[in-house]
Structure formats: structure tokens, C-alpha cells
Amino acid sequence: MRIGNDGTTTRRADATALRDSGESDGKGRTAPAPAAARIDVATIMGIPEGELTSKVRAALDRLLAEVQQLREQLSIAQKRIGHLETLADNDPLAPVLNRRAFVRELARMSAFAERYETPGSIIYFDVNGLKRINDRHGHAAGDAAIKHVAEVLLREVRASDVVGRLGGDEFAVILAQSRPEAAATKAASLAEAVSNDFVEWDGEALRVGVAYGAYTLAGGEGPDEALAAADRAMYARKHAADDAA
Fold it and tell me: Which of 32, 39, 128, 223 has an alpha carbon 20 to 30 Å from 208's alpha carbon atom?
């Protein structure tokens, strides 16, 4: 409805501003692309500015709108892919990598160590005292203890190191550029950090300990072989401690 010359002029000016801005009109429609964008596209396509008829301009507007829509769809798809990759790599309980993702990272570290002759180590952890917590407080408390162990390990390692849960009560840490002596020292430090900390459950402090074993990558071994070697080192330490007791 025409209200007056001033009102009509205002509405037309608003429509022109919306068209030039390339923004949405609030009804799910994208305004035509700015004139400068049309000219840039026309230049790229070799269309002289003098030949930019109304039909050509309308076609370019549709083309630019479609390109913008495709860009938005691509951005959404990339975000979804990133989210799915994160879900595929993360452990369902603890805030660390799951076994599959950890083994992949271990394979990369082994290949890196072989190619550049750079030391790297792996520490294998087995959580002690979890059965006692499950039997006395329930599996929810045991899950809380597992998550707490993961959080302590993450807190105590470098950003370049990798923490993963191998399953059940077993964890492992990849130490980048770490020789045997440094790996042994770090393993003892991590075990101490876990045993000195606790998770509160129903007003009670729940504590667990960890047994550990370290193995330094020689380069060329597969991830399963490296994990098995670290696992054997852990059980050797356990048996030595039992014999000493």
C-alpha cells in the first residue's frame, strides 16, 4: 500500500541497502549480491561492464547466491565431519583417546622414531584397587575413578604426549622424544601423582594406584608389539614387587 512519497522512498532505500549488503531479508531469502561482487565475477568471466544487462545481472546474482549457499553447506559438512572424527577417536568414558586412536598414534610415533632416529617411549598402566571400589560403592564409582585417573594423567603430561585408555582399567601414555631413563622417571612420577590424588564419592575419598611398565621404541616395531613389550615390563615390575614383599 502506498503511504506517501516519503514512505515509498524509505522502503525502496531499505530494499536497495539490503540488496547491496548481501544479507538475509529475515524471511529465509538471501538478498542479491552487491554490485561490486557482480562486476568482479563479470570481469573474471570476461563480460564487459557495458554488457551487464538486467538479465545478466540477475543471472550473476543467482550464481553468486548459489555459490554462497554451497560454501555454507560445505562449512556445515566440515564441522559435522570434525565432530564425527572426534567421537570416533575418543574413549566413551574417559576424556582420552580410545584404543583404536591410540594405536594409530603409536604407529605414527614408531615410524617417526625409525625415520628420524628420535627416541620415543610408551608407558603401560594397570589401575589397582578398582575391583574394591566397584564391589563396595558400585560401578558408577568405579567409572568415576577411571575418569579421574585419565584426568590426572592428562594433567601431568606434556601437550606433545598422548594418553589413551586401552580398555577396562588399562591406560597407556606415549612420551615423545623420551629416552629410557626419562621414561622410567616419568612413569614413576605419574604413578605417584595418581596414588596421591583421589576422587570424592558420597563424601568418601576414593583412591587407586597404578602398576606401570615402560618401553622405548626402537623404530620399526608395530604398535601391538610395542604395547606387548610395555605390558611385559609392567608385569615384571609387579612380580618383582610381590617377591620383595
Answer: 223
